[in-house]
Amino acid sequence: MDKRANPAPGFQRNPDKVITIEPYRGTVTVSAGDTVIARSTRARLLSEPPYPAVFYIPFADIDFGKLARTEHSTHCPYKGDATYWSVLSAGETGKNAMWAYEQPFDEMTEIRDHGAFYASKVTVEAKPG
């Protein structure tokens, strides 16, 4: 997490909260059944203990034709406001399956224009490169 003296407005500083973002060396594929929604060799791995690590995939590597934006949103005091998309082919299970921080806090710009998926709603497969 960025340690700037002047954090972005709304950004919550917490010295006990360590968030790391690093490039994933390999291929990440997201699918619902036989339908591939995203495939990337440019994913970033975000670690935010105690939560499981999450892959953030560049928008350019996501097939938005297989998604529908929803009205759902959430707020994270460390990343900003998240918007959500549903995976069309997954039906009710795919509701709000992908989220993104389209305008994250300055401290989290590495995940701007990247989407993350709930592994409980779709299949997220990572193969080291």
From TrEMBL:
* UniProt-recorded name of the protein: DUF427 domain-containing protein
Q: Report domain DUF427 positions.
A: 28-119
- Lineage of the organism: Bacteria, Pseudomonadati, Pseudomonadota, Alphaproteobacteria, Hyphomicrobiales
List, alphabetically, the InterPro entries matched: DUF427, DUF427_sf
